[in-house]
Queue: 2 jobs
Job 1
Amino acid sequence: MEQESSQDGFVLQVSDLRKLFSVPRGIVGTLLKRPQRYVHAVDGVSFAMAGGEILGLVGESGSGKTTTALCVLGLIEPTEGEILFNGQSVQALARSRERRRLRQQMQLIFQDPYESLNPRQTVFATVAEPVEIHRLTRGREEKVERVKAALNAAGLKPPEIFLERYPEDLSGGQRQRVVIAGALVLNPELLVADEPVSMLDVSIRAEILNLLRQLRDEHGITILYITHDLATAAHFTDRVAVMYLGRIVEIGPTKTVLRNPGHPYTQALLSVIPVPNPRRRRKRMILVGETPNPIDLPSGCRFHPRCPVASEECSQTEPQLRSVGPDHQVACL
Ligand SMILES: Nc1ncnc2c1ncn2[C@@H]1O[C@H](COP(=O)(O)OP(=O)(O)OP(=O)(O)O)[C@@H](O)[C@H]1O
Ligand SMILES: [Mg+2]
């Protein structure tokens, strides 16, 4: 697989990404000329990914993970900020004739393999469809070979026995493998996996994550892994970025962040993960209060209303990410 990357070696560079959604005012609100309000779904997110890296984007529901992913893929327009894929603006590519190439090189895998597969299509038809759309092969034989190679890479072996099956003939894990084969068949450089295992049985989650890691190891695919579950990210990613209400509050090598979490929010997420050795168990930190909504954001540090160690200053000053160790940054005063 040929891999190109930008001069500084990053496949993906996200700088100061913001995405606001306007909140419908309703008839009354419009008549009363109430001010337009916005959901701050993503509110100043920056990170970069080197080729062949697996980065975990971790955070509670509503923290802006999927919105970040959709901007990265060029599927929605950011309000502000820049996203570079191999040094080229994703937004510009998405508007240009290069769009097709972008759609081929970046692939999205969703959480629900039941929804992403058409129940009336065979496995062959499903995996062949993107090949046809992108006109990647000449003739049926080449197409069949390409589909079989993708099924094989997705761990559906031998591929021949799966070609004529329908989704209903497959287990949940096999269906997600078909979805993954449908992405692999295009030889993507970046895979965005949004909660790819959250709908699957616990027993097969590790299998699918191991498959994704194997794809990285063998084909150098760069993977953005999105999850609310720090436990799966712990075993599978090289680096993690922890999101809270539209911002990254901590980012660093996974091992470092797990061993030495710098942000109280990361510490709280970690404290509820079961660890095999009870003597190493952390004190459970239960977060008080609900996640504030991203419309009326708290002043200062947006985590301060729930933070067990918040001080007066935290309600006034918004902390920026700063270095606390090699490659490790934390946004906490
Ligand atoms: N199209 C939209 N219009 C208005 N608000 C939106 C839209 N998409 C997302 N939001 C809001 O933006 C915020 C972030 O949503 P997003 O889906 O990115 O979160 P998430 O981290 O992926 O959450 P989850 O873990 O539940 O998937 C939420 O408050 C959500 O309600
Ligand atoms: Mg989401």
Job 2
Amino acid sequence: MKEYYDRRAKEYEAVYHRDDPVRQQELAEITSAIEEAMRGRRVLEIACGTGYWTQRAAKTAAHITSIDAAPEMLEMARSKNLPLDKVDFHLGDAYKLDILGRNFDAGLAMFWFSHVPKARLQEFLTGFHAALEPKSTIFLAENMLQEGVGGELIRKPGIEDTFKRRTLADGSVHDILKNYYNRSELEAIFSPFATNLRIEMGACFYRVQYSSSLRQS
Ligand SMILES: C[S@@+](CC[C@H](N)C(=O)[O-])C[C@H]1O[C@@H](n2cnc3c(N)ncnc32)[C@H](O)[C@@H]1O
């Protein structure tokens, strides 16, 4: 996955510029919701990619520490020249967050959650919440499964995860782990970690927002 994103870095942000009014409207709503949710917060951002959402969250956040596993994606993020007193970008692993200390009162994970294998969901969520102060604000958004958008959905025998088959501009083809969830599955996953859980299912994207509960490691 890291190699795929390194190769995709320069073309990645095209996903945010598709000529589709519904998509653009939902992206605008997500942007507003992030600006509101991150206002004044010390944010830990997981899998920041090219920093598209970092830039938006930085408008209102007090500070953002953003990590990603793909150096080429981070290079794109750093090239945005976001204010150095507000944003730190680090090479890092979403499953090894304990090295970051616990000085965060918000967590942001945009278009990352779908890439977590089902067998690692609890590991990721436990580590994510443990890296944040109790009662932190959490915000994440993801794609809805849409026929014909973002490549063919692939199922593999004996594997509970699904994949999207993606072709990059250089012609390389990649099966990228990408899981989709409905509202009740999301409620079941996040309820144990959440108070004030809000789940919005759109046509193109869903978003999940809550305050992390006190019951975390
Ligand atoms: C779909 S992109 C999302 C990028 C950005 N958050 C956005 O929404 O535009 C997924 C990102 O996850 C990163 N990634 C993959 N595995 C990772 C890991 N184990 N730890 C941290 N980041 C990872 C990839 O490099 C990629 O930038």
